[in-house]
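Supplementary Note 3. Input sequence used for the single-chain structure prediction.
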Amino acid sequence: MKPRLLFATILLIVLNVNSQTTHNLNWFTGIGSSVDLTIDVGDTIIWTWTDALPHTVQNVSGSSVETFNSGTLTGNGQTFSYTFTTVGSNDYFCGIHGAASMSGTITVQSTNTTHNLDWFTGIGSNVDLTIESGDTVTWTWTDTLPHTVQNVSGSSVETFNSGTLTGNGQTFSYTFTTVGSNDYFCGIHGAASMSGTITVTDNLSLEGFEKKNSVKLFPNPTNNELHIEILNSLTNTRVSIIDITGKTLINTRLNSNSNKIDVSSLKSGLYLIKLDSDTGSQTKRFVKK
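The predicted structure, written as discrete structure tokens, is reproduced below.
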């Protein structure tokens, strides 16, 4: 099922409740086979019947990471709601009128980010990263020597220790949940050779729109292109991409509610993207692979 934005039939209503979103989809005979949507974990979709016929909303068995079925509902104004909690793809259809007439795919993406760091003797004392609470950092051994990744006692708000791991390709992952600073080092080769600081923030947004989730970025992380989808109507929107030192690297203006920006020239790392419009501003973050 090919993704397609159905502006005529998809209404996206943002409810700023625990940073989750409710999306509304119209559901009627002949709507087609591309009633697709990309959402975040924890988001809810409400399908609303807009004709007088009976319909179902049900997942395609074997082609969906979650199981849901509205049962048969008949009549204009009937609704079915489902909250998605698992990352992955969910093909769905109307069991009465068939996939050719009424179907789509709900793609659920994680709201948190995994950051990757190389870890080797001599990498230095500035292996630093600024992330958000709930993000995961994965260190990958890129030499054949034994190393640890461990917090500095008394200089870290969280406690973590990989233990001794030896060999190229070994990994250690840790999910940070507490706002604050975490100094860490290799307990074998010392801080001068291998160390850094993981800084965990609650939210990298500088100023919020009245509705927080009015902008979606995808894919995130990205290699070459960053797509920006504005769910609410904004006018005269300007975009700035800023690195973590505060330097503005890209300035441009959005031409519509769905845009893409070439970020292939950026180095790998964490960036802020600030959107300014006549109605407010919002700063989000993305990762360049």
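The chain has three domains: 10-109, 114-201, 215-288. The first strand starts at residue 10 and ends at 17.
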